[in-house]
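User: Here's a structure from my thesis project, written as structure tokens. My advisor, Dr. K., wants to see whether a designed sequence matches the one we expressed. Can you design one independently, without my sequence as a hint?
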């Protein structure tokens, strides 16, 4: 039997650094672009912006690091106990002789990142009281002016304008065009709400857009929009997506409408219904007076003393209600619009209302009607 004796010169001896380098080269070259599944534990966010945590399963644990430039677009907050899928590469940290996973991407397992972000923000704002029922303001009945925050090109705008025109043609509508999708949408929507409050030109606001995926509607789930709704002094109606869609804006708003069309119906009553109510009031007043006059003769003596007061009181009540309703109708009429500083321009001589400068040509005569008086002018330039 042959025996081999190892001498100092026949041994391969590694220094700690050499061995660590060799292991590092072997591991880092073999495990790149891999996906690892596990449960987050020991999560820490460093002031440098880097994230440190471990992934574990029933039998093992793996240290992980996700650097600031990678986690900036994570989209949700990592938490201990969360089941995730991590994509990255195996690296070795020589000072500790420890291998780790350098994470490039994290996906929640079973639930989308946006859904987790939605739930986390919802819980945060609910704790702060942004959804509290007692802070919600009533929607004004028969508002003088409706502020509309939506896309100028969207179907939601056309639907709302068509319904308001059909229900109450004299309604004043101020449209604030904003993008309703993409990175620029949330800041623009929040700014529109703030501007309406600054200008104090609307009695109620409608935030509207059509249906879509959670990504399409995400602007209405942003914290900036939620806080703008919360601080608004003007009541806000959220009309985002379809009936089955739910956004953070729905929870904060004073009223949630299932669709943009439904918002238009909720904010403005039918003019015909108001006129019928006025007619009923007049008929009720007449019937009340007739009933008083036709009291049986045996009760006349008993009611003579109170008849005058009863008639005057009833007349005062009905006249007050009549004046209130007719006053609102008058405030929404064209003359009231002129008194608020607007004007109407007519073409001479056919008297057609000008709504598009493109329908005019140089040299045309136009007549402009103001709240008090009117004047005629000649078109010199068309822009």
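Assistant: Designed independently from the structure alone:
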């Amino acid at each position: 039997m042959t025996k081999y004796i190892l001498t100092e010169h026949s041994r391969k001896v590694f220094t700690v650094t050499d061995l660590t380098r060799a292991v590092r080269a072997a591991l880092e070259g073999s495990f790149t672009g891999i996906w690892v599944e596990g449960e987050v534990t020991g999560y820490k966010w460093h002031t440098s912006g880097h994230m440190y945590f471990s992934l574990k399963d029933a039998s093992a644990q793996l240290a992980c690091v996700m650097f600031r430039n990678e986690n900036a677009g994570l989209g949700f907050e990592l938490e201990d106990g969360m089941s995730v899928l991590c994509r990255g590469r195996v690296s070795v940290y020589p000072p500790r002789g420890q291998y780790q996973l350098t994470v490039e991407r994290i996906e929640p397992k079973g639930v989308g990142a946006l859904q987790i972000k939605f739930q986390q923000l919802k819980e945060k704002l609910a704790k702060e009281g942004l959804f509290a029922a007692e802070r919600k303001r009533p929607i004004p009945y028969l508002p003088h002016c409706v502020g509309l925050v939506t896309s100028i090109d969207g179907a939601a705008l056309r639907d709302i304008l068509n319904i308001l025109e059909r229900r109450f043609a004299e309604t004043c509508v101020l449209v604030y065009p904003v993008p309703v999708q993409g990175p620029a949408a949330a800041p623009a929507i929040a700014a529109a709400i703030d501007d309406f409050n600054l200008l104090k030109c609307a009695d109620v606001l409608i935030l509207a857009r059509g249906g879509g995926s959670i990504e399409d509607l995400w602007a209405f789930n942003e914290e900036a929009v939620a806080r703008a709704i919360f601080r608004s002094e003007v009541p806000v109606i959220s009309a985002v997506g379809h009936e089955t869609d739910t956004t953070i804006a729905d929870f904060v708003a004073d009223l949630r409408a299932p669709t943009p069309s439904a918002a238009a119906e909720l904010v403005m009553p039918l003019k015909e219904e108001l006129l019928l109510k006025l007619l009923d009031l007049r008929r009720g007043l007449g019937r009340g007076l007739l009933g008083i006059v036709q009291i049986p003769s045996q009760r006349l003596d008993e009611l003579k003393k109170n008849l005058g007061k009863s008639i005057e009181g009833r007349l005062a009540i009905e006249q007050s209600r009549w004046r209130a309703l007719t006053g609102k109708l008058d405030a929404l009429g064209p003359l009231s619009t002129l008194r608020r500083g607007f004007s109407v321009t007519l073409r001479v001589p056919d008297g057609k209302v000008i709504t598009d400068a493109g329908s005019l040509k140089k040299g045309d005569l136009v007549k402009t009607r103001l709240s008090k008086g009117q004047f005629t002018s000649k078109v010199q330039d068309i822009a």
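When you compare it with your expressed construct, this may help: Residues 300-331 form the longest helix (32 residues).
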